[in-house]
């Protein structure tokens, strides 16, 4: 029997934090109104920096609340690697901590369907829902590429650059991190050659300090915060250091392609490599493959817009006429 680890050996199974919080409510009992307990529990979920901090916070919560012998919390601790962010900060998860996306998908379909809905009717609902999703996605993609998002902050070079590179939604996330960065203070630690080490922490608190090592000569960054691995985007600590050094652009090595405005274009370019384009005139099979990919991409973009479909159909008719005329002329020349 084939198991999941054999099929997906590098996959990281996670538990939904939202469901853990909901299940925990039934086990809190008198602790439901204990603010100190709730703060410690939430910190264990996604507020700890590393494993040692998690263990310390968990022990304090269990001791202060008298939960050392509680069976549910024992089981929860046993599976801690599946839900605590402190133990998963080396794995990319796009910042997703719950199954909210799956739940929203179920809701989008479920509010129109019921147990008595026939398969035919359900398929119609499904098609309509997917068509709406794709239309919304295309609209956002169109607006994101052809417009610039506004900001409540002055568009310094770093914000301006990210607004040009990231999608609107990811730019908003970066903008929030930028705002957090402006609320931190950075203390420079002993310097070793061109390597600068900063201790960055919230201005109004002594907690949450992170270390950022910055190499000015080639803009190499080392950091103790793992947000770049988990989210694929700089955290406020790194942004603070970059802003202090008047860095106006993020190097490509630190930009996750999937978060950029042109990720789809890059995907199609990978499917249509340059060597195939160069050899297209001499290699009929490769040329047919490249044209099928390009045409399919264009058809996908047009199929939801009647005007676009008409333009594509007219071009196909015109191209067919010109090709037929050329082939006829070539056949006459051969005779």
Question: Mind explaining what this structure looks like?
Answer:
This protein is an alpha+beta fold and about 325 residues long. The chain has helices at about 5, 15-30, 35-45, 50-65, 70-80, 100-110, 120-145, 155-165, 170-180, 225-230, 235-245, 265-270, 275-280, 285-300, 305-335; strands at about 185-190, 195-200, 210-215, 220-225. It folds into 4 domains: about 5-85, no CATH class; about 100-145; about 155-260, no CATH class; about 265-335, no CATH class. Helices cover about 55% and strands about 5% of the residues. Helix 3 (about 35-45) runs antiparallel to helix 4, helix 8 (about 155-165) runs antiparallel to helix 9 and helix 14 (about 285-300) packs antiparallel against helix 15.
N→C terminal distance: 66 Å
- What is the CA-based Rg, rounded? 27 Å
Number of domains: 4
Mean pLDDT: 78
Number of strands: 4
Uncertain regions spanning at least 5 consecutive residues: none
Which strand-content bin applies to the residues? 5-15%
Question: What is the count of DSSP helices, taking H or I runs of 4+ residues?
Answer: 15
Q: What share of the residues lie within helices?
A: 55-70%
Structural class: alpha+beta
Spatial ordering of strands, largest sheet = 1-2-3-4
- Shape call: extended
Write the H/E string, N to C.
Answer: HHHHHHHHHEEEEHHHHHH
Q: Mind describing the biggest β-sheet?
A: 4 strands, antiparallel
